[in-house]
Amino acid sequence: MNLAKLPELEIEYCTQCRWLLRAAWMAQELLTTFESDIGKVGLVPGTGGIFEVRLNGELLFSRKEHGRFPESKELKQLVRDRIDPGRDLGHSDRK
């Protein structure tokens, strides 16, 4: 499998706010769900309260824009909608 052609996720988190564990947990959730569909998840240290998730450079979620952190289920749906729209996420798709 050529990982260079698979989508890449990036989670930028605020080091001042100590959000590394939250970012790492989100990365784990996404890697577990999309283990063969994602080439890389990068954790990017930032400052100023940032918590943003990007897929191939496209902003999927911004804590600043939404005024909250993303739910795991919500992030999985956002990623799925871009890399495999027909995919069933099981319990993450149920209301």
From TrEMBL:
Record InterPro entries: Selenoprotein_Rdx-typ, Thioredoxin-like_sf
Keywords: Redox-active center
PANTHER family given in the database record: SELENOPROTEIN DOMAIN PROTEIN (AFU_ORTHOLOGUE AFUA_1G05220) (PTHR36417:SF2)
Taxonomy of the source species: Bacteria, Pseudomonadati, Pseudomonadota, Betaproteobacteria, Nitrosomonadales
Name of the protein: Selenoprotein W-related protein
Domain of life, source organism: Bacteria
